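User: Teach me something about this protein's shape.
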Amino acid sequence: MYQTLLILFVALAITWATDYNALIEDQGIYVQCSEAPAGSLGPHDGFNLDNMEMNMEPEGIYVSGNMTVKLNFSLSDRISVSNSCPKQEELSLRTHQDLIPFQARFSVMHYERGTWQPTMFNLHSANFCEVMFDEDQYWFKYWFKHIRNREEVREKCLKVKDTVLVYNEFLMVLQLENVNTSNLQGRYKAVITLEAFDEHDVRRPTSFCVEIRGDLERFQRCYICVQDTTPLQTV
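Assistant: First, the predicted structure itself:
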């Protein structure tokens, strides 16, 4: 009887967790937006990537080197990051150059039945320059966390031409862990857009748009809690 109880006890201690690996399509990570807004710049238009090393290996993409900003916005411009349906928020204009915001969009889309469909995964920042080094943000965790010259980049953001972003070498691995929703396997793209607004809150005609394309691959991990296996004694 104690053997049966032991088997049941161990079985109840097993926890299944569904995780996903993002298999990035392009070794360069960022590609031109397939449906870019008019006047938008792509990855090689916005940044000089000649000194960036990106090498795809089975375990992920090894990134090192530096990239130079080619964008040339005014320090009095606001840069924004938002999703496809940004919230209409009251935005206060700043006069100090270090506090002027930069708006950004991060929208994940799923390729389904021949077209790209929006998903629930969207991020919006009305003041990207203030939160680019916020540890709770995804762009910090996967990208800006590894910048070596943070203070210079924090001051100039991505608005000042010829600003150099120096990276410590890192391995880029995109994962979703402990997902308790429907099957997310399939082809996806993340669309990242930066927009500038002048001191009158009027959008500049030039913006920046890139995509990260790839597939989500599902795998399961089994966590087993090892319990005391001493046979139960009967009296």
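Now, about its shape. Residues 2-12 form the longest helix (11 residues). The chain has one domain: 18-86+97-224. If you'd like, I can walk through any region in more detail.
User: That's plenty for now, thanks!
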